[in-house]
């Protein structure tokens, strides 16, 4: 772990709302990173004491800060902006609290990220059955990213409900680049992407007016595009597993706003990072 007074290379921003069991596994996957040059900023969208208690468990093993906002509905964009504003690292690595990061995740971010180019990946979507097995079986993140568990994932992908198994393969750069070239979308995926803080600031971060589930990541993706910040897909290099939580109902107003971001070609939102205040440190 980096010295307390040193500026970390990466700020890992973890968005969370309740789901303490998932969040604990997420933080454990960060403890197991091979590259230790990072801080963790918890962007808490109004959870109760259960998330605060999990953060306390990791105070000695992670350089961690817990930022909380009161629960007034789904306000992920605002929570992420608050965390980004506080971040000390020059690189921002955004993940959700139900995501498990491969032990080489931070190292890949450090290697692949460039100013003027953000990186984004995709996740293996673990079934409810395997999720419950992980939560109930005292799995360490290293066991979860081992070959025996990948074999279990494969079986569940074939005969169960795990999806997108192909994203769970950690490949060397050349074969990974080949598979990346087959994918058309380079769009920001809010659950796992990274960007230089300077590029994030240039487009005024997330749009705080996105309230309710969905599309805040598409919005910032379009603004980055119009600002000339390019995208690189790093699937099979930045490997992530997503714990099943069921479907959420998207906010249709957000969907319409996202279409405006694509059409209007604006690079900055009017109510974003620069307008963010009211940061509460737990």
Q: Give the amount of beta strand, in percent.
A: 15-25%
What is the tally of beta strands? 11
Q: Please bin the fraction of helical residues.
A: 25-40%
CATH topology: Spore Coat Polysaccharide Biosynthesis Protein SpsA, Chain A
Mean pLDDT across the residues is 90
H/E topology pattern? EHEHEHEEHEEHHHHEHHEEHE
Number of helices: 11
Oligomer: single chain
Name the shape in a single word.
globular
Biggest sheet layout: 8 strands, mixed
Amino- and carboxy-terminal Cα gap: 21 Å
> Biggest sheet, strands in spatial order?
9-6-8-4-1-2-3-11
Number of domains: 1
By helix and strand content, what is the structural category?
alpha/beta
CATH H level: which superfamily? Spore Coat Polysaccharide Biosynthesis Protein SpsA, Chain A
Low-confidence regions: none
What is the CATH architecture assignment?
Answer: Alpha-Beta Complex
CATH class: Alpha Beta
Radius of gyration: 18 Å
3D structure, described in words:
There is one protein chain. α1 packs parallel to α2 (49-57) and α10 packs parallel to α11. The protein has 282 residues and is an alpha/beta fold. 46% of the residues are buried. It has a single domain (10-211, 229-249), classed as Alpha-Beta Complex (Spore Coat Polysaccharide Biosynthesis Protein SpsA, Chain A). The chain contains eleven helices and eleven strands. The strands form two sheets. An eight-stranded mixed sheet has the order 9-6-8-4-1-2-3-11, with helices on both faces. Strands 5-10-7 form a three-stranded mixed sheet. α2 links the parallel β2 and β3 (64-68). The two termini are 21 Å apart. 37% of the residues lie in helices and 18% in strands.
């Amino acid at each position: 772990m980096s010295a307390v007074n040193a500026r970390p290379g990466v700020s890992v921003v973890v968005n969370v709302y309740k789901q303490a069991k998932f969040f604990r596994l997420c933080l454990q996957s960060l403890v197991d990173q091979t590259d230790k040059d990072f801080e963790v900023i918890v962007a808490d969208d109004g959870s109760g004491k259960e998330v605060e208690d999990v953060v306390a468990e990791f105070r000695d093993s992670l350089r961690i800060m817990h930022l909380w906002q009161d629960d007034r509905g789904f306000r992920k964009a605002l929570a992420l902006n608050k965390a980004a504003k506080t971040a000390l690292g020059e690189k921002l690595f955004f993940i959700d609290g139900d995501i498990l990061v491969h032990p080489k995740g931070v190292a890949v971010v450090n290697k692949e990220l460039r100013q003027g180019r953000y990186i984004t990946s995709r996740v293996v979507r673990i079934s409810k059955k395997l999720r419950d097995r992980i939560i109930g079986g005292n799995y360490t993140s290293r066991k979860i990213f081992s070959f025996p568990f990948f074999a279990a994932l494969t079986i569940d992908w074939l005969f169960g409900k795990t999806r997108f198994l192909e994203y769970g393969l950690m490949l060397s750069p050349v074969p990974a680049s080949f598979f990346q070239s087959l994918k058309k979308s380079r769009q920001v995926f809010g659950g796992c992407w990274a960007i230089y803080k300077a590029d994030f600031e240039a487009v005024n971060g997330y749009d705080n007016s996105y309230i309710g589930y969905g599309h805040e990541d598409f919005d910032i993706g379009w603004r980055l595009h119009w600002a000339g910040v390019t995208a690189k897909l790093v699937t099979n290099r930045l490997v992530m597993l997503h714990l099943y939580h069921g479907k959420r109902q998207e906010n249709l107003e957000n969907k319409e706003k996202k279409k405006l971001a694509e059409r209007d070609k604006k690079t900055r939102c009017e109510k974003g990072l620069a307008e963010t205040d009211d940061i509460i440190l737990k």
